[in-house]
Specification:
This protein is mainly beta. It has three domains: 100 residues, Immunoglobulin-like, CATH 2.60.40; 253 residues, Jelly Rolls (Sandwich); 377 residues, 3-Layer(aba) Sandwich (Rossmann fold), CATH 3.40.50. Helices cover 12% and strands 33% of the residues. The chain has a 16-stranded antiparallel β-sheet that branches. It has a nine-stranded mixed β-sheet with strand order 30-28-31-33-42-41-40-37-38. Helix 7 crosses helix 9.
Length: 756
């Protein structure tokens, strides 16, 4: 008998006392669980550290729960309400669309439909299971399917259409490649042999189904889920529509070359290039036809994508929106699991700020549904800024079972955990920004509204035994508790929403171990905070690296586009480098003139997982202006321990570099001992590959500890290492890494100057 499974998510990741949280929970193999509110102090079970620590909290949400398995509608599609049934005329009609399929031949896929498979009603334009253009018609009693004779090629633009002639009861299929497309698989100089123009008699007159029109799916029914959208499409759809006449081949040819169907025949014309602003585009789909049958995207179809007419010159939708009508759909996209609430709980006043979870238990099965509690008003001088944007980026990464190069990158033999098997068994929980959809496209959206395995306190990095992201940051939480420092917990979501006002009440802001993903608002707010006298302790590495964006009304969903620089699992296609959410360029902040060295003093140098290293003090550490950092530290060499691969310098590392923007006057306090060649020089700095770029040979592959004073009394302390935070709580906090960090915290809390 398989082990029961419990999981869930919360409707918000950050909250205050007085807020009401809704927990969406699911169970398999059991129908009951015990809920218990806990405050999480430490997640890593490594015996070299404090071990797993949680504190049970009295709360009204505690107690037994009756649970059931909850189901998810996966796949991105667009739903177009049509309550008056205007999309399917009583007589002849033509349905047409520009398409760029990515997985033709991988099962039946819908393009533009008002088709109910169980009712055998309506019409559908799509692809057959073997990749041929197909039209489905139904009258409520039977279905008629007509398919073309030649399959479509993957990643190539076509205009496709199906024309139904009510007088002759014939269907004509039209399939023509768009020649000269700069983002198709085939060049315009290559002869094409996949045109289709065929007329077939059919033995029925289709009748309308009383359901919404759909792009990239059709209506079906599932035994457990009820009504679902099936036939999910993989690829792009550009401008499409429905005419109340049989369009001729000549009229369709005109459309393929950029023209329009006769205006008098149009019932609906969905202009997928409409709706862009300088600040991006939403999920709405605009119908410029007479009935205004506008649509709304589900599971975030991807906008700001090149269309059938992209010319290869204008690389951003802001330059010419008409070339950006492509909307990308994926059958395995998921933004909102859409589960029903299993429990609602209002957070009582007076509950201490911290990291909390609703712990679920059933027998030996356990899960934690995590959220972060900030105070109603700031209560401490220290803010612990939890890097939730980075948590989102790594949410449900599937590299342990899907990445063939993982062992080479990490320097580890593959280690698998229960959550890896759970993710493999539950594709409907979605993917991370380090993964690909089934068609090979990179995942550019990530959301909190789904179960996320990486947000469990005992989680490990993919394929390794290394605590990563959230569990690693709990080592800093534990250390704050060990030292007795009063602190409030805030999150990236809070920082993005509120800007500098989120930080300004605090004397000191501590970053997590890996604050890699930052929005423009977050970058601006951090700079403003330091410039106004705030003091930041950057206790990690590879931070302030990737550009991300959020919609104000949907803080739970993040967009990222990984471009042609930076350590990346995928790369956005030409012309698709700008974020649909905000209109700004994606990629790494360094390539937008905002290298992390300018803000923190250090920037990304390398990554490796085969082992961490200690630090050596540098001459600057003895300068009277900063000698206080090392009070109580007697050794020249420190940090030869830690829960992050047995050293304080490692995993991912940052270095001091004046040429990349480290502020003049920055103190270089310490640097790491040499790394192995499993730590390669970071890719964005390699113009030519040549031998000698590994950690044992390249002096730039190192972790540096730095400190500088800013204007108005502000300051920045940086450790240059993800592993630093995981060394803090070792030996009950009685260690040199802890002493150095505590010295800086105390000095930063003091109103006096940082560097005397």
């Amino acid at each position: 008998m398989s082990k029961p499974m419990l999981t869930g998510y919360c409707d918000r990741i950050t909250a205050k006392p007085g807020d009401t949280l809704r927990f969406m929970l699911s169970a398999e193999g059991t129908t009951s669980a015990m809920a218990q509110l806990v405050r999480i102090i430490h997640g890593d079970e490594n015996p070299a550290g404090p071990g797993f620590i949680e504190e049970e909290i009295e709360a009204s949400c505690n107690g037994p729960l009756t649970l059931a398995k909850q189901y998810t509608q996966t796949g991105s599609f667009i739903e177009i309400p049509d309550p008056a049934g205007r999309a399917l005329p009583p007589g002849s009609f033509t349905v047409h669309a520009f398409i760029w399929p990515t997985l033709p031949g991988k099962g039946r896929q819908a393009v533009l439909t008002q088709w109910s498979a169980p009712e055998q009603l309506g019409f559908g334009l799509g692809l057959s299971g073997d990749g041929h253009l197909t039209c489905w018609l139904g009258d409520g009693q039977k279905t008629w399917e007509v398919s073309g004779s030649r399959p479509l090629a993957a990643r190539s633009w076509y205009l496709v259409a199906a024309c139904y002639d009510a007088e002759t009861q014939q269907v004509t299929l039209y399939q023509e490649p768009v020649l000269g497309s700069y983002n198709g698989l085939w060049s315009a100089v290559v002869p094409r042999l996949d045109s289709v123009y065929v007329t077939v008699p059919v033995d029925l007159a289709p009748k309308a189904c009383a359901r919404p029109v759909l792009l990239a799916g059709y209506h079906d029914r599932h035994a457990a889920l009820g009504d679902v959208v099936a036939g999910l499409y993989n690829g792009k759809i550009d401008r499409c529509g429905i005419a109340n006449a049989v369009l001729t081949r000549e009229e369709l040819d005109v459309m393929r070359l950029g023209g329009r169907a006769p205006a008098e025949s149009l019932l609906a014309y969905w202009d997928t290039a409409a709706g862009y602003t300088d600040h991006g585009i939403g999920d709405g789909l605009v119908d410029t036809g007479p009935h205004q049958l506008h649509g709304i995207g589900r599971n975030r179809p991807i906008r700001a994508m090149t269309g059938y007419n992209w010319n290869g010159r204008d690389d951003c939708f802001r330059l010419d929106p008409s070339q950006y009508g492509g909307i990308q759909f994926n059958e395995d996209a998921i933004i909102d699991s859409g589960w029903c609430p299993s429990l609602e709980w209002q957070i009582p006043e007076g509950l201490k700020s911290g990291v909390y979870a609703l712990r679920l238990r059933s027998g030996e099965t356990e899960d934690h549904v995590v959220f972060f509690l900030r105070p109603t008003t700031p209560q401490a001088g220290i803010a612990m800024l939890m890097p939730t944007s980075s948590y989102l980026a790594y949410a449900n990464e599937r590299m342990a079972v899907e990445s063939p190069a993982l062992e080479v990158v990490t320097g580890h033999s593959l280690v698998l955990y229960d959550w890896d098997y759970q993710l493999a068994a539950h594709p409907e929980w979605g993917r991370s920004s380090y993964d690909h959809y089934k068609d090979g496209a990179g995942v550019c959206y990530s959301s909190w509204l789904r179960p996320i395995m990486a947000m469990r306190p005992k989680h490990r990095m993919a394929g390794t035994n290394v605590p990563w992201q959230f569990p690693a940051d709990l080592s800093i939480i534990c250390w704050l508790e060990q030292m007795g420092f009063a602190y409030d917990v805030i999150t990236d979501e809070d920082l993005h929403r509120e800007g500098v006002s989120c930080l300004s009440p605090y004397s000191v802001v501590l970053n997590g171990t890996h604050s890699e993903y930052y929005s423009e608002r977050m970058m601006d707010a951090t700079e403003q905070y330091v410039a106004a006298g705030g003091r930041v302790m950057y206790l990690g590495a590879n931070g302030y690296y990737w550009v991300v964006a959020y919609r104000d009304e949907e803080p739970w969903c993040m967009e990222i586009r990984k471009l042609d620089a930076g350590s990346r699992a995928w790369q956005a296609a030409p012309g698709e480098h700008y974020l649909a959410t905000t209109g700004e360029k994606g990629g790494i902040w360094r390539n937008r003139g905002r290298s992390p060295q300018k803000l923190t003093g250090v920037g990304f140098s390398s990554e490796g997982m085969d082992g961490s290293r200690p630090y050596q003090r540098m001459p600057d550490s003895r300068d009277p202006a900063v000698a206080w950092v090392f009070e109580g530290v007697t050794n020249e060499r420190f940090g030869d321990f830690g829960l992050g691969q047995n050293g304080a310098a490692g995993l991912e590392i940052d270095r001091y570099d004046l040429g990349l923007g480290t502020p003049p006057g920055t103190f270089l306090l310490a640097t790491s001992e040499p790394f192995s060649d499993a730590y390669p020089h970071v890719v964005e700095e390699i113009m030519f590959n040549f031998p000698g770029l590994g950690g044992s040979q390249d002096f730039q592959v190192r972790a540096d500890v730095t400190l500088f004073s800013a204007i108005n009394g502000g300051a920045m302390f940086s450790t240059g290492s993800i592993a630093w935070g995981q060394a803090l709580p070792c030996n009950g906090g009685d260690n040199d890494v802890s002493r150095i960090t505590a010295n800086v915290v105390r000095r930063f809390l003091d109103d006096g100057p940082v560097t005397d």
